[in-house]
Amino acid sequence: xxxxxxxxxxxxxxxxxxxxxxxxxxxxxxxxxxxxxxxxxxxxxxxxxxxxxxxxxxxxxxxxxxxxxxxxxxxxxxxxxxxxxxxxxxxxxxxxxxxxxxxxxxxxxxxxxxxxxxxxxxxxxxxxxxxxxxxxxxxxxxxxxxxxxxxxxxxxxxxxxxxxxxxxxxxxxxxxxxxxxxxxxxxxxxxxxxxxxxxxxxxxxxxxxxxxxxxxxxxxxxxxxxxxxxxxxxxxxxxxxxxxxxxxxxxxxxxxxxxxxxxxxxxxxxxxxxxxxxxxxxxxxxxxxxxxxxxxxxxxxxxxxxxxxxxxxxxxxxxxxxxxxxxxxxxxxxxxxxxxxxxxxxxxxxxxxxxxxxxxxxxxxxxxxxxxxxxxxxxxxxxxxxxxxxxxxxxxxxxxxxxxxxxxxxxxxxxxxxxxxxxxxxxxxxxxxxxxxxxxxxxxxxxxxxxxxxxxxxxxxxxxxxx
Length: 467
Prior knowledge:
This protein is α/β, with parallel strands linked by helices. The protein has helices at 20-36, 55-60, 63-71, 81-85, 89-95, 143-149, 156-167, 182-191, 259-278, 297-310, 333-339, 353-363, 366-369, 436-439, 452-463; strands spanning 2-10, 40-45, 76-77, 102-104, 108-109, 119-120, 122-126, 132-139, 152-153, 173-179, 197-200, 211-213, 216-219, 227-236, 241-251, 280-284, 314-318, 329-332, 346-352, 386-389, 391-397, 403-410, 413-414, 420-426, 444-446. Strands 6-4-3-2-1-14-15 form a 7-stranded mixed sheet, covered by helices on one side. The chain has a 6-stranded mixed sheet with strand order 7-8-10-11-13-12, with helices on one face. A 5-stranded mixed sheet has the order 20-17-24-19-25, with helices on both faces.
């Protein structure tokens, strides 16, 4: 007997809820169709469903995302880095308390080496015919960052090897939920022939018909709910054997919406904004002005609190992080979230003076200030002007019509190219290729779980009037 199983998967929604009503209507209709056809269906999320840039996720610390997954009757989910390292230990540990689905996560442990109470390393889903699908969940192992939060994350591939050994005689096929990224997924396909189907995420790649490497079918549905992933399995129930696996994606843009889900999201947004608005930080007498291309009172305040928080010799931060100004009057958590929505943490790096000089020269160009940035935790538009605390720069306009830096002082003294300076800055600069000297520094310290808006809240509370 040939049995058909349909697996639908989402990944990297990042709280972009505009496509969620389309996803819910489509999945609900497909579930009804498969039930009529007596076909099995599973629904899985591969992580980064949450992104605290959105008021709904910020106000509930992701618990409303879990409600949405419950409402659509997800069977399984794993976590991405946005669930894992943008939450404090306490918030992540309580995130899935009301989950009606299983969270599969084989490589995250507490400091005692135990799996969290809300997670399973794997599950064995048994079809009515008795065919057994082993399902494993893994997330990207940012070891240092998880350690700062109180978790012990282990190398995903090492854990996968151990888990496969444990379940190989208990299953008829293996499905892996991988929030590791395309490079690791392809490595798994090459090195672990036991994995039949791999549902991916993290790097936001799109595999419209899947990608087969050796025995493994790799799948991924891009990001933001732009696509729904779909895998069809053909199973020989008598021989307990997977005989065919195919993949496709469904473009959500043109799908009809669920009116009910739209209404639910509107209500959640209203409640979330009110909750954030009711959380008053302080009252300020003077406005804090933001300008992406100029040093202002607000960007200077951010540079100042960053230096204080990290204890750096100096600090540097880009003005583009502040999306708007703060008028005089009450400052609420909603205000700070709106103008600084980024899941970005402070950090401190140590680099030599000659490298620092190159960074300052590079930052002071029009090209860098107008650079549009995507990812790295940045949820704004452009880099903006680099603002410093502890660094004084003298400039002059030369015959070429451009402004050139003529002198750099560090806390009143000439920059020493051979001296090592500690720079309080943002974790975004330690990733990617914006500033290789910062990225490649061997001496980095991250400060977690506080975001930049948390630092601003503490600073504004200290300078403002308590309500």
